[in-house]
């Protein structure tokens, strides 16, 4: 009998061979694994690819438990672990490309992903073509004979466009192109990648998997077709993580479902409140119709989380600074997915370096929020006070 996903968050990775009968797998730290007989060493060597204690970089029981859990939750054939989300992205790509290949990369990708393509990939003689996240079936026109990877991120970083992942994946597979997805926003909870045509699902587990803003961790779960190559190539590139960090990632999974539900509930209330504000041009929350690609969110996702953006009607950096500097409950930080609320601003001009073909099509300042687990009334009051500071400077500018 198959388990409901909600149950899987509690049971996944808790096989007795990893736990030895306790609730949580112990933290097993090791570099050298010792063997008492030649036969024992030979057996470990032959099975070193299959969650067998062989050498610390291949993993310990703590790592194996987390890999099992992520594989079960996301639905693939195996999970590789990395020291951060960026390492998961770069090594997943590196595992499948060679000089002369071509990559299709969504233009709204995470900024370090773009930097990786524009530097390391370019230096290796691998060309990247950026495409509009809303291109849909038009992706077929960009596929070349040497296209190796279609890389998606949905919703998109900062501007939150939701893509037609299954539609684009279907086209890619017609050309034997590998479909990779940065699934950090979906977190393995709200979007099931392998049910929508994805071949490799990547997460910055630093964010919702860990959930407490205290661990760097990345994961890549692959389908059976690509798992062996991803595993071995990542191993050859030296990818491994601390067992302590793997343990904290595994512990985060136990509360992932309930945390995400509360993040989603809080963020939707804030988004709906912001939509009524006169300073706001529109809100880019995937659950709202004002978000590009909302129809795909409604079709493919089972819920939301705490991350979304909204766009102000004007761009006035002094006023934006006044909004940000006086926040009590929102802090400024370059991550999200923890229990705390965060806020960052992007002036329209900043997208000139962040986008190649996808015009954000707005002229006001974009504010990205991560809504944490604080009391929702406190968060709204904090934003209301921030907008009052913002309005004071806007009024001052208009009267001088």
TrEMBL record:
UniProt-listed Gene3D superfamilies: Aspartate Aminotransferase, domain 1 (3.90.1150.10), Type I PLP-dependent aspartate aminotransferase-like (Major domain) (3.40.640.10)
Superkingdom assignment: Bacteria
Cofactor(s) it depends on: pyridoxal 5'-phosphate
E.C. numbers: 4.4.1.13
Keywords for this protein: Lyase, Pyridoxal phosphate
Catalysed reactions listed for this entry: an S-substituted L-cysteine + H2O = a thiol + pyruvate + NH4(+); L,L-cystathionine + H2O = L-homocysteine + pyruvate + NH4(+)
Lyase found in the keyword field: yes
Pfam families linked: Cys_Met_Meta_PP (PF01053)
Any one Gene Ontology molecular-function term assigned to this protein's record: cysteine-S-conjugate beta-lyase activity
Pathway: Amino-acid biosynthesis; L-methionine biosynthesis via de novo pathway; L-homocysteine from L-cystathionine: step 1/1
EC primary class: lyase
Tagged with keyword Lyase: yes
Family: Belongs to the trans-sulfuration enzymes family.
Protein's UniProt name: Cystathionine beta-lyase MetC
Gene: metC
């Amino acid at each position: 009998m198959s388990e409901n996903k909600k149950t899987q968050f509690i049971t996944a990775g808790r096989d007795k061979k990893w736990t030895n009968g306790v609730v949580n797998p112990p933290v097993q730290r090791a570099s050298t694994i010792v063997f008492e007989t030649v036969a024992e060493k030979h057996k470990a060597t032959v099975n070193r690819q299959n969650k067998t204690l062989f050498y610390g970089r291949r993993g310990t029981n703590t790592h194996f438990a987390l890999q099992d859990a992520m594989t079960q939750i996301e639905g693939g054939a195996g999970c590789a672990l990395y020291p951060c989300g960026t390492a998961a992205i770069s090594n997943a790509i590196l595992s499948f490309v060679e000089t002369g290949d071509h990559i299709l990369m969504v233009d709204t990708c995470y900024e370090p992903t773009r930097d990786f393509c524009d530097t390391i990939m370019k230096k290796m003689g691998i060309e990247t073509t950026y495409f509009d996240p809303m291109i849909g079936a038009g992706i077929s026109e960009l596929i070349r004979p040497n296209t190796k990877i279609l890389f998606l991120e949905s919703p998109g970083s900062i501007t939150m466009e939701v893509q037609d992942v299954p539609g684009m994946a279907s086209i890619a597979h017609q050309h034997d192109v590998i479909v990779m997805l940065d699934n950090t926003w979906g977190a393995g909870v709200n979007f099931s990648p392998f049910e929508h045509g994805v071949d490799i699902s990547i997460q910055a587990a630093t964010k919702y998997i860990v959930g407490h803003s205290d661990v760097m961790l990345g994961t890549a779960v692959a389908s059976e077709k690509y798992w062996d190559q991803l595993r071995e190539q990542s191993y050859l590139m030296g990818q491994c993580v601390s067992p302590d960090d793997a343990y904290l990632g595994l512990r985060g999974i136990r509360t992932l479902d309930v945390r995400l539900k509360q993040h989603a509930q809080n963020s939707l209330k804030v988004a709906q409140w912001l939509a009524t504000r006169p300073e706001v041009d529109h809100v880019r929350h995937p659950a709202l119709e004002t978000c590009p690609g909302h129809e795909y969110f409604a079709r493919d996702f089972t819920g939301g989380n705490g991350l979304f953006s909204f766009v102000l009607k004007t761009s006035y950096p002094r006023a934006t600074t006044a909004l940000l500097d006086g926040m009590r409950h929102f802090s400024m930080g370059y991550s999200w997915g923890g229990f705390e609320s965060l806020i960052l601003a992007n002036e329209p001009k900043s997208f000139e370096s962040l986008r190649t073909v996808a015009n954000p099509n707005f002229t006001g300042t974009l504010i990205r929020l991560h809504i944490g687990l604080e009391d929702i009334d406190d968060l709204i009051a904090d934003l209301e006070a921030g907008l009052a500071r913002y309005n004071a400077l806007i009024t001052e500018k208009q009267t001088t």
